[in-house]
Amino acid sequence: MKTMKHVTEEVTPIRLRINGEKVFNKFIAWLFFRMFRREKRLTDYPRLKLALLFKAELENVTDVVPGYDEYEWHFKVKCTSCNEVNNNWVGVNRLDQNEIPGSRGSANLVMRCKFCKRESSAQFDTSPVTPYTIENSGKFAQMTTIECRGLEFIDFEPRATVGTDSGTKFEDIDLTDGDWAEYDEKGGIPVGISEVQAEFKRV
């Protein structure tokens, strides 16, 4: 007749074998995860389409954002992966086409977040840009739409405009303080932009 001690000695190896199988299966699952894991690609991010709405008080100027394609837009950018905001203004040109990593496509803007290192992109809509005219002064008006992946635009800074009477072009306008004032020598009148606001609406 077997003693309780003998029974324990026979059963224990079986328990160890079962535990060993569980550990082995977990190791195999982890190994497969490591082998087939890949970094998230830009094409994996959902598309976010934004409409840029602009508002300002204009004095003797119009076409705050000229409708020519060579114009460089300046935006504040937020990463949608880590929600960090890039403190620098980011310039985007509608004519630029940059390769998207891991894709055959391209976009006007392709950048890497300096915080989480994730790639992101933005592409302007192909429809013509609508300049902000003096007729819209004091009211929000849509300028353009932009498709984003991995990022979101949260602010906009215009940097060019045209005198209403003289046709004089004013470039490199600084609106960091929220307004701008100049004198149009050709037209003989003061010109300015004040109470600047920009909004992005999801469409």
UniProtKB/TrEMBL annotation:
Protein origin, superkingdom: Eukaryota
GO molecular function, one term: zinc ion binding
Keyword Transport: no
The keyword Nucleotide-binding is assigned to this record: no
Record keywords, A-Z: Metal-binding, Zinc
One Pfam family here: CXXC_Zn-b_euk
Family affiliation: Belongs to the UPF0587 family.
Protein name: 14629_t:CDS:1
